[in-house]
Amino acid sequence: METCQLSGASGFVGQNLQTYLAKDFVILPFSVRYKINQTIDLNADHIIHAAGKAHDLKKISNPAEYYEANYELTKQLFDAFLGSNSKTFIFVSSVKAVADKVNGILTEESIGHPKTPYGKSKKMAEDYIQNQIIPEGKQVFILRPCMIHGQGNKGNLNLLFKMVSKGFPWPLGSFENKRSFLSIENLCYVIKELLSRPGIPSGIYNLADDDDVSTNELIQIMGSSLNKKAVIWKIPVSYIRKIAWLGDFLLLPLNSERLDKLTESYLVGNSKIKQAIGKELPVSAREGLLNTLKSFNK
Length: 298
What we know:
Blueprint: E1 3-7, H1 12-21, E2 26-30, E3 46-49, H2 63-82, E4 88-92, E5 105-106, H3 117-130, E6 139-145, E7 147-149, H4 156-165, E8 181-183, H5 184-196, E9 203-207, H6 215-225, H7 237-250, H8 256-263, E10 267-268, H9 271-277, H10 285-296
Parallel strand pairs: 1-2, 1-3, 3-4, 4-6, 5-10, 6-9, 7-8
Helix pairs in contact: 1-5, 2-3, 6-10, 7-8
Domain NAD-dependent epimerase/dehydratase: 9-208
Pfam family, one: Epimerase
InterPro entries: Epimerase_deHydtase, Lipid_A_modif_metabolic_enz, NAD(P)-bd_dom_sf
């Protein structure tokens, strides 16, 4: 059985990958942090680099932490890969390496203009990998997942679910938006395909479920998972924007920035990865969301 070294094995993505891949690969979790001039030994058939510093929604992290964890560490690992006998290197990057806001649909050809330290550090790592000469016989994949969800995920999706479960109404029903999500099952499926099939071309691949979902649809799916009808208020957009404007000055829970985050559209195309693996993704967007929401009730 082939071996696979996995960084970030204790994280949300890493834990799910270990479980998913265990039947087909010997998983070798390893803990690694950036240290100046450190030497990293890689001795597995495949390397999955999922470690890094996640996006800080509270904006309290030092930008240097992103630089070291997401760029410098990736650089050290990739250099080690180039000098090893390992065949495959998979770097779990992010769509945020390209854009924090999207007009239309984000594709692999979209020009990167990240604004946050998180996005900038991921983009730097991507650029470094792409600028190296890849020896014959090695495959290198840069994966750009959109918002990943699944069992063990404790992000904004969980907070929204708690609001719905307590019977609070969703007050932003008048806003029309669409977002792409990525179920952890589809992420694991794609990575398994990349590891199992040497003929897939190296390169950058966006990862997203097939269907986009509006926030109103998401609230309704949450209600379905709870066997209750979700309450959606369609308050006029002009009223909501006035409240958010007041929130900018009065430090209310709803301000203009938070409103934009809650109501913006962010669509990610996945046609390139589906064409590369020649298969459909196994889990629909709705099915994946229901699986995640059910896990919140456990």
